[in-house]
Amino acid sequence: MSLHERIKALLEEHDPASTPRTEFLRARFDAGLAWVHFPVGLGGLDAPREQQRIVDEALAAAGAPDNDPYRIGIGLGMAAPTILAHGTDEQRRRFLRPLWTGEEVWCQLFSEPGAGSDLAGLATKAVREDGSDEGSDWIVTGQKVWTSMAHEARWAILIARTDPSVPKHKGLTYFVCDMTDPGVEVRPLRQLTGEAEFNEVFLTGVRIPDAHRLGPVGAGWAVAQTTLMNERVAIGGGAQPREGGVIGVVAQAWRERPELRTAAAHDALLDLWVQAEAARLTATRLRQQLAAGHPGPEGSAAKLAFARLNQEISGFEVDLLGEEGLRYDDWSSDRWTTDRPTTVDFAGRGAGYRYLRAKGNSIEGGTSEILRNIIAERVLGLPPEIRVDKDVPWKDLAQ
Questions:
Q1: Which one of 36, 41, 104, 143 has the fewest beta carbons within 10 angstroms of its own beta carbon?
Q2: Alpha carbon distances (Å) from 358 to 130, 311, 353
Q3: Does residue 74 fall inside a structural domain?
Q4: Is beta strand 184-189 parallel, antiparallel or unpaired with respect to 138-145?
Q5: Are 195 and 335 contacting, i.e. CB atoms less than 8 angstroms apart?
Q6: pTM of the model
Q7: Could you tell me which residues come within 8 angstroms of residue 139 by beta carbon, excluding any fewer than 6 positions away?
């Protein structure tokens, strides 16, 4: 059956106008039209990645519902490729379908108060129950931070330290954590925008079955690289039309409000527009490279450019608007206690919000400083920085 025949059959058997949303999404997954480059039986057809556009456009034209990709972006962009690459057959069957349909939301438990840029220095520990042998449950204790969607997530991808007697990169193991289990506590983190988009998560004696371990014991750092490379592509390499994102908002204001224009602002806007277009085309090329294989360190460059441009463009917008740019859309007190956004809407908010929220772009998904190191070492082949703690057991490092 051809791709077009599969799409036609799905629409005939499950009319989007009358089929409940979740039922339609499940049927789409089972038809292999969720992510066509995934294996048959796991929402795909083992087809080229670029054919996904054909599916998405045809179903959108027919009025079919999507899976709210912004809400479940961590699952789609980070958890799914990691589970596919390192999970068992049973784990893939259990997690991928409800992840893609949005029935189960995911979050990422990586960063810690003392392990952000130096992620391998994390201190959250996982030990076998009562020191038991292989196959027994793990007991996890620690704290994670900057966790988007933790307040809605059912599952989390988690890295924990399972062997403190070896160097920090070697003693880590990767798990899937049930966020509804006893011992998991989620607390909101207020940020510069006045909202609690992020969370901190406390893990106190959380039991994780060994069946929810991804990859071998002690191989967590290698598994995490799959997550991190996909994360940076997801953040910085997303598909955008020309003048998509923040540059489009600023360009529209420039066209509609001639009273704001000056010669200096014109030069600055042209420079930013060209840079944004170059970054967009580079991200397009990166996605084409992904179609032929797995993401590499080049995704770090896309994410680095995204963060820098978002901050520079939003700063230019505030300057362009003058006093108007200093206004913020809502500082009401209830926003500080009740507003828990699940997506970041740069285009749909005011200039003040964009300026404040963009400050986080150079931190989330890998700090810009760390990304520059990755680009230098893994893309340009420059000598690595001297790391005096590289071969020291983690337990002997200053904590």
A1: 41
A2: 46, 5, 8
A3: no
A4: unpaired
A5: yes
A6: 0.86
A7: 126, 127, 128, 129, 205, 206, 207, 208
Q: Which of 104, 195, 231, 298 is catalytic?
A: 231
- Helices 263-290 and 220-236 pack at an angle, to 10 degrees, of 140
Structure tokens at 92: 């893939």
Range of the domain at 270: 236-379
Both structure tokens of 172: 């880590």
Per-residue model confidence (pLDDT) at position 354: 92
Q: What is the CATH number of the domain that holds 226?
A: 2.40.110.10
Q: Is 231 annotated in the active site?
A: yes
> Under a CB-based contact definition with an 8 Å cutoff, are residues 105 and 152 in contact?
yes
- Give a yes or no: residue 87 inside a domain: no
391 in a structural domain: no
Burial of 127 (0-12, 13-18, 19+ CB in 10 A): middle
Say which amino acid occupies 99: L
CA distance 109 to 153: 11
Residue 83 phi, psi dihedral angles, 5° rounding: -65, -40
Give the angle subtended at the CA of 45 by the CAs of 43 and 48, to the nearest 5°: 115
Three-class SS of residue 34?
Answer: coil
- Tens of pLDDT, residue by residue over 82-106, are 999 999 999 999 999 999 999 999 9
Amino acid at 332: S
